């Protein structure tokens, strides 16, 4: 099996002295969705930011397709960062309010004109058709191409952020609470979209959330985070096993009521 992303023994302490990540290792294989679940403050976002090389690591190694990101200069990282895309909690802050939807959707592809994802091969030379195809893939009508973000709902905005993330056929997409700002109905729609896209395009995901049912729905393997470490990890089907860590059982009980 090929690891698209592998991290070993990641540690991160903030200048405040708070040890947010305390020796975490994780790997994601091609076409796989790996989930991380944990309560607020457990270090999930810090880990996401470390994996994206947006935070300086205190210690640890990160490999993207066997390339050691932790040994690269900022300039070298910039050259391959597009292979890791990210979708965060608030779509409104991920989209420039002054840019039309077509421009936000095409932002990454515009920056890398020599990259052509297999699913855009026939339209890559035609910017508008490319954007239309991407919008279609995330369930947004093409009449929104020349609209601005404020004309779209929260769910629609997150679909645009997802369209931009898949536009470059990245090696991995890191989702950090991508549905947390949406109403329950829209959350379900977005999760279904993410699952369909992952299966159709054979994408690799790291899906991070406090929402255990959402992580369970999408992920093949699940890691449970508490106070900066993984206290449990298992295959999806083993979530309800009696061998689970007491903290995992507590999270399961919370959701089962
Ligand atoms: N820039 C920072 N400086 C100092 N401490 C920070 C910083 N960012 C996060 N922390 C602290 O690190 C810990 C982990 O935060 P983090 O945001 O990674 O957790 P989280 O699991 O994503 O929680 P949430 O879902 O609430 O964002 C928290 O105690 C938080 O207060």
Protein model, in words:
By secondary structure, the protein is α/β, with parallel strands linked by helices. The protein has a single domain, classed as Rossmann fold (3-Layer(aba) Sandwich). The protein contains ten helices and ten strands. It has helices spanning 44-51, 74-80, 91-94, 101-105, 107-111, 127-137, 154-166, 184-201, 212-218, 246-256; strands spanning 3-13, 19-29, 33-38, 59-64, 67-68, 84-87, 172-176, 205-209, 221-226, 229-235. The protein has a six-stranded mixed sheet with strand order 6-7-8-3-9-10, with helices on both faces. The longest helix is centred in the last third of the chain and has 18 residues, at 184-201. Adenosine-5'-triphosphate (ATP) is lined by residues 14, 16, 18, 20, 38, 40-46, 210. It holds the Pfam family ABC_tran. This is Peptide/nickel transport system ATP-binding protein. Keywords: ATP-binding, Nucleotide-binding, Transport. One of its GO terms (molecular function) is ATP binding.
